[in-house]
Amino acid sequence: MSIIENLKLIKQELPQGVKLVAVSKTKPVEAIKEAYKGGHRVFGENKAQELAAKHEQLPKDIEWHFIGHMQTNKVKYIAPFVHLIHSVDSIKVLKEINKQAAKNNRTINCLLQFHIAEESTKFGLNLDEAIALIKSKKDFPNVNLTGVMGMATFTDDKEQVRREFKQLHRHFIFLKENFFSDDENFKEISMGMSGDYKIAIEEGSTIIRVGTKIFGARNYPTTS
Ligand SMILES: *Cc1c(COP(=O)(O)O)cnc(C)c1O
User: 11-26 pLDDT, tens per residue?
Assistant: First the structure.
C-alpha cells in the first residue's frame, strides 16, 4: 500500500475534530512529499534539527509538530515556525520556548506531556508537576498552553492502554476545570499512535500521532 492510500484509510475513519499528525521521523523528504501530494499538511518529528532541515526543504504551508523530548539547547532550531510542541515536561524548557518565541515575535503553542505509561523510560509530568508548571505560566507570555499529551505503555494489553488514556483524559479535565475554564485554547488531548490510536480516539483524543501505519516501519529505532 502506498503512503497516500494509508493516509486515506486512516482519515476515512477519523471522527470530526480529530487531527492526524503524520509522524515522518527518520523518513526521507520524498516520503513527506508523497503524503503532501495526497493533500496532507500536518507532520510530526522528534528531533529538532531533523525537523528544521525538513522544513527548509519542503513547502512552507506544512504544519510542523514537535513530538520528541525537547532539549533546551535545541528549541532555537524550530522556534521560528513550529506549530505545536507536544512535549513540554519542565519549567526549564517552557522558559526557553518562551524566550525563543519572543525572539521570533511569536507565541508558540505547547502541550504538557504527562507520564501515563508504566515504563519508567518515558518522559513526562505528574499532576503536581503540571500544576506547578501552569502556575509559572504567567512568566511566559509567549507560550500558549493548549492541552496535554501522553504515550501509553507499549503492550498488547489493550485494557491497560485504555486505562492510561483514560487517566490522561482525567488529567485534562481536572486542569481544564481548575485552571483553564475560561480559556478556549486549552482543548487538545494528544494521544494515540499506530498501534493504539483507535482506543485513544474512543477515550477522547483530539490529536493522533501516526508514523508506521502511514510510512511503514522505520529502519532504525529512535529514542525520543
Ligand atoms: C514515533 C512516535 C510516534 C509514532 O509512532 P508509530 O508507532 O510509528 O505510529 C508517535 N508519538 C511519538 C511521541 C513518537 O515518538
Answer: 999 999 999 999 999 9
Secondary structure string (H, E, C) spanning 96-164: HHHHHHHHCCCCEEEEEEECCCCCCCCCCECHHHHHHHHHHHHHCCCEEEEEEEECCCCCCCHHHHHHH
- What's the gap in Å between 224 CA and the centre of ligand 1? 9
Q: What DSSP state is assigned to residue 49?
A: H
78 lines ligand 1 (CB under 6 A): no
Q: What angle do CA 207, 165, 48 make, to 5 degrees?
A: 45
158-212 pLDDT, tens digit each: 999 999 999 999 999 999 999 999 999 999 999 999 999 999 999 999 999 999 9
Which of 27, 209, 222 best tests ligand 1's pocket when mutated (most atoms within 8 Å of CB)? 209
CA of 161 to the centre of ligand 1 (A): 15
22: left (phi over 0), alpha (psi -120 to 50) or beta: beta
